[in-house]
Amino acid sequence: MAADSADLRTPRRVGRAGGVVLAGVLLVLGLFVTTLAAGALAGTQRQQDESRMDRSMEVARAVVAGEAYRRVELLGQLSASVGTQRELTAHDFNALTHRFAYRGLPGVSEVGFVVPATDDQVQGVQRLWRSRGSAVAVRPVPADEHRLVVLSRSLDGLSSALGADLAAAPEPVTAMDAARRTGQVTASQVYVLLRDRPLAPSRRQPSFVLAAPVYGAGDVPDAGLLRGWLLMGVRGVDFMDGTLKQIAQGMINVKLTDVSVPGQERRLAELRGGEPVGDTGLHRETTIDVGGRQWKLELQPTTGFLSAGGTRTYQAIMGSGVIASLLLAGLVLVLVTSRDRALARVEQATAALQADIVHRQHVETHLREREAELERFAAVAAHDLKSPLTVIMGYCELVEDTLAPGSDSQVTGWLGRVRTGTRRMQHLIDDLLAYAAAGDGSLEPAEIDLDTLVADIVMERTSHLDHDRPNIEFGRLPKVVADPARIRQVLDNLIGNAVKYVRHGTVAQVDISAEREGDMWRIAVADHGIGISADQRENVFAAFARARGSEGYPGTGLGLAICRRIVNHHGGEIRVEENPGGGSRFVFTLPVAPEPSSRGAEAEGGEDDRAERSASGSGRR
Ligand code: ADP
Questions:
Q1: Is 474 helix (H, G, I), strand (E, B) or coil?
Q2: Contact at 8 Å (CB) between 135 and 164?
Q3: Interval 390-445: pLDDT, tens
Q4: If you count Cβ atoms within 10 Å of the first and of the last residue's Cβ in the chain, which end, N or C, has fewer?
Q5: Ligand 1 site, residue 559, Cβ cutoff 6 A
């Protein structure tokens, strides 16, 4: 057993180590392939991301520059138109700026006409423009030169800057001065529009103004002279939202900063599309020239940008690759360990089985010892009981002989019962002794002529009968080599039963035959008696077992048990079956007699010319 378990353990150790190595190799290989695939994808993806950012930048730049230019252009055209007006009135201004309201100009808050004025001129300016239809009420601030908004068209629906003095903020003043100087539409530095300053800080936006100088032009008295400026206020965030939101699509963060003066950069607007990603090298920036100022346009990718591209695929490939590798390695490990577990279970089961077998062997040996002991005891007890019974029998006969003929018939009756009981007890003891002897002890084989043996038994069993002699028929029977005394016992029991178990008042019909089947003789004793029901046919061979319906017949229930023991001891088998036509048919087998068997052959040949013989009463017929 120790050797067996060592045999089982050796391959297991090798298998587990091999499995772990295989799992490790698969894991490493899987991760390597995954990394390669993901790396290749990442390279391609990187190029795609770069070109996406480049395209986005191109578009964003075109849009911002285009929209800024459109505003500059519109303001320039308006300036030219206003310059040609002989006398600009509020009505004219409204008519000229009417189209602004419908142009779709994101971020534009207001378009106004601004005139310069000294302190002395302020009131005169107000009067003049009121006379020209404006509702202006000037609110001058301390300044060398006031810049008063005298005409205004609000484009955002909010209150306008009409009447304000733009000299309050340096940014528009600087822009106006530059415009006056250059004659060009000029953008201001980023600042919060005066009209927005009363708003809550959260609603204030970094903004700028475009300033276009207005000179009298054409056939007008003030031709070539500065009349003032047209100013367009533009809010940065609204401008950005209205122009770039579609492009950013939540994937790109956009920043627009006035960087005209180094060290004085001001953020005009920022469009946050999402969570910015770190240094990816995908950051893009460019500068745009707007009304004489430099704007820096910056584009930065967000997490949304990367995941919309290949990041998700990359992560999916990496993730699924890693998971697949882990699963594969895990599977190999599970297979290896489950094989180990199965082997361990087999080992356990084998050990348990072996322990069980050893235990059973112990029990069996013990039982055999006990059985042998009991049989010895029964044999000794039976043997010792025989002599007192013989004594009782002897005394019974003595008393009977002593009693005078015709004396007390009651005493004679009692003596008869004692003798019957004693005889029954003798039978039982004989059977017990035969049963004990049938199972073991060495056989003393000799050639038996079954023909003679059966005839002898029949004679013995029937010769003393005066009437109702059973009709026992048997053909030519073979010679066998077996223990004569025991085979006699078998046949005597079977023939005795066949004669005994008949319906009361009927005569027994018994047929004894033999046939060869391979290496065995099949000997059958068939009768037409009371029969044995199918469910009890096996049971009747057990010791002390009696079938239903045998109550009215004498017997100990040991006869067939003795027969089975003897037949088995000879290497044969015995069973009972239904006799066709009613009754029972007991069949037992015995090995064919060894050579020389000329007599056996003779017997076989004799079967063919089987002459029906019968023994009725005195023997063969
Ligand atoms: P017993 O001493 O009772 O005859 P056996 O062991 O010889 O004991 O037979 C066991 C039982 O088998 C019998 O009690 C009887 O019920 C049944 N039996 C045996 N032989 C026959 C037969 N030829 N016909 C019917 N029943 C039989």
A1: strand
A2: no
A3: 888 888 888 888 877 766 677 888 888 888 888 888 888 888 888 877 776 788 89
A4: N
A5: yes
